[in-house]
Amino acid sequence: MNDIPAPGDSLESFEEAARERAEVRFLFRLYVAGSTVQSNRAIVNTRRICEGHLEGRYHLEVVDICLHPELARIEQIIAAPTLIKREPLPVRRFVGDMSRTDRLLAGLGLPEAPEVRPVTP
């Protein structure tokens, strides 16, 4: 009944937590309105950020609300483009062309990296 961890336990716990964090999968849904410049920019920027920070650990679904207005109603989308992060919790929403990389990364809890450059007008 010894509650004190053995000397190696804390390192093992730390390594296990690091492995779990590396395995966290992000689930995103990006709502766009047609094939506009802003929609295309949001898609490119979102993919660039995901590949730069979450390579192999994310799933991105792009939904055109012009083709699927029922999904926009269900999700209560009032502006497009809108990116919704479903997993991991908490759910987060981002509106715009995703060119504010610093704000997006902060909202996702990811460190900023200078190699990720947004597409801007």
Describe the structure using short key phrases.
KaiB-like; 121 residues; Thioredoxin-like_sf; 40% helix; Glutaredoxin; alpha+beta; single chain; 4-stranded mixed beta sheet; globular
Descriptive account of the structure:
The chain is 40% helix and 20% strand. Strands 2-1-3-4 form a four-stranded mixed beta sheet, sandwiched between helices. The mean pLDDT is 86. The protein has a domain at 25-108: 3-Layer(aba) Sandwich (Glutaredoxin). The longest helix has 18 residues, at 37-54. By secondary structure, the protein is an alpha+beta fold. Residues 29-110 form the KaiB domain. This is Circadian clock KaiB family protein. It comes from Luteolibacter soli.
In short:
With 121 residues, this protein is α+β, with helices and mostly antiparallel strands. Helix content is 40%, strand content 20%.
